[in-house]
Structures are given as structure tokens and as C-alpha cells.
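Entry for the shared binder. Reason: the reviewer on the internal report wants the predicted structure included alongside the sequence.
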Amino acid sequence: MKQQLKSRALVVASVAAVVGLMLAPVAASAVAQNTTLTAVVQGSIAIAQSGNVSFNVTPVSGGSQSSGNHTVTVTTNNALGYTLNLKDLDATLTLDGPSANTIAASSNTMAAATTLANNTWGWAIPSGTTGAATNTFDASYTNFTDQTSSATKWAGILATDQLIKSTSGPAGSGDPLVVNYSAKVDPTKAVGSYTDTVVYTATVK
């Protein structure tokens, strides 16, 4: 009788052990999921200048001429490049001074740039500037003061855009252009500052 009880106890213990194995948790496998990150870079263009242009000129009979310049820099990531245009802010093309005194814009054109006539002002870029419209400017320019017989070549400002540079690729680090200005005057012009405003416009292609 005692032996039978022992046998039953062993059977029960065995069943309990089997049930315990069936309920044990199973370890899960690793799961991975990929995702795509997209940064969309938009087109951009910016323009900056190194400062306003200012120079002194001391008039003499027959005219005295001085010049000054600044740097205009265009920055763009456009793969096709950009165009840069120059024009007067308004239809009044003169340098306006005190007591209704003015200095007239030169009648010279880009295609026929030449020396400044007395009591006129003009602008210029180096003749080899990338993509500039047809011009006859000098190959290079250096600022000068009070010259009475300068042979430098200049064009007159217009109220409409004049193409002064055109590129065919990006300029992510900035693309500079030196633009020169000059005036020639005689003592018929009153003492004082003579000013006008010009506009640079950069456009992506």
C-alpha cells in the first residue's frame, strides 16, 4: 500500500515537470526597420556689395577726372549660373549736386565706350568680364584722382538694365565683380557732393 502511494507521487511529480516546460517563455527574434531621410536643398541667390562708391575730384579748366570702385558679389547654388544687370534707379540719370547743379550721364554706350566728356560721369567693367554684353571697355581699371587727360573708357548709365555679367555654373562661394565709376568736371560745377543711385539685379538662369 505504501509502495502504491509512492508510485502515484512520482507520477504526479512527473506530470508537473512536463507542464512546467510547456509554459516557459520563448526568446523573441530581433526586428529591424529602415527609414529614408531626405533633405531638399532649395535654389538660392544673393547679392552683396563692398560699400558705396565715393571719390574726390578737384576741377580745373578743361576738366579734371577721378574714379572709384566697389565689388559686387553674387552667390548662388543654381547649376546654370546667373545674370547680373546694372541700371539707374530712376529716369533721372544725372549726379545731383547743390543748388540745382548736376553732372550729366555720359552718352557713351557699352558697345562704344570711350573717354568721358567734360562734366559727365560714367561706369565701366573690365572688357573680359564673363558673359558681359558686347563692350569696348579697357582690359583693367585702377582708381585715379584729378587726371586731366585720362584715356580710360567709360559708358553712360541707362534707366534700363544693361548686362554686365553672365555665368554658366554655380557660385556657392561668391562670385565677385569690380565695377568702376568716374566723373570729369570743370569749375562751372559748384562745391559739394553729387550723387545718384544705381541698381544691380542678379537673376538665376
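Summary line for the report: The longest helix spans residues 2-22.
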